[in-house]
Design a protein that fits this description.
By secondary structure, the chain is of the alpha+beta class. The chain is built from 6 helices and 6 strands; from the N terminus they run ββαββααββααα. Strands 1-2 form a two-stranded antiparallel ribbon. A two-stranded antiparallel ribbon has the order 3-4. Strands 5-6 form a two-stranded antiparallel ribbon.
Length: about 160
């Protein structure tokens, strides 16, 4: 956690006239990137709120404040597992993170998930069941359904 307050204003990299609260910058960047599709900007691999010109990326990656926390995370990860490899390549300043594993999830012979198998048909009533009824009868059915759902939830 940073000790910086979230109510400070930051400038949008796409439109310098936009001043946004820091806690809102991520959602603003998504919207502003859609509004400015011709502006060539790249995102920092360590923090998506760092949007830069492509020529400034390499320098930024070397000095990014979030790079230190990632390096620390990767070093801890390497200490826990010798079979996994985690490196930061300095030749092109890109993050390389690969894992070697003996598990093969594709070889398992499991049936596919079918949600219709576990749905209780008595719990779900379609609109065709109540069409053609008076409003009072519809209200009564909806009330019964609500009670039945509550009882089913508590009986699990």
């Amino acid at each position: 956690m940073t000790s910086e307050p979230d109510n400070i204003l930051v400038t949008c990299p796409y439109e310098p006239s936009h001043r946004i609260f820091k806690y809102r910058i991520q959602s603003h960047l998504v919207k502003c990137a859609k509004n400015h599709p011709n502006v060539k900007k790249v995102k920092c691999p360590f923090d998506v709120t760092h949007v830069l010109n492509p020529k400034d990326l390499e320098e930024h990656v070397e000095e990014c404040p979030n790079r230190a926390s990632l390096k620390m995370f990767l070093c801890k990860e390497e200490n826990y597992s010798n079979s996994n490899t985690s490196t930061i390549s300095n030749n092109n300043s890109a993050l390389t993170h690969s894992f070697e594993s003996t598990e093969d999830w594709d070889s398992y012979n499991c049936p596919t998930y079918n949600p219709n198998r576990i749905i209780d048909p008595n719990l779900v009533r379609g609109s065709s069941t109540i069409s053609g009824l008076t409003p009072t009868e519809k209200d009564k059915i909806r009330m019964e359904d609500a009670i039945r759902r509550r009882l089913n939830i508590f009986s699990r």
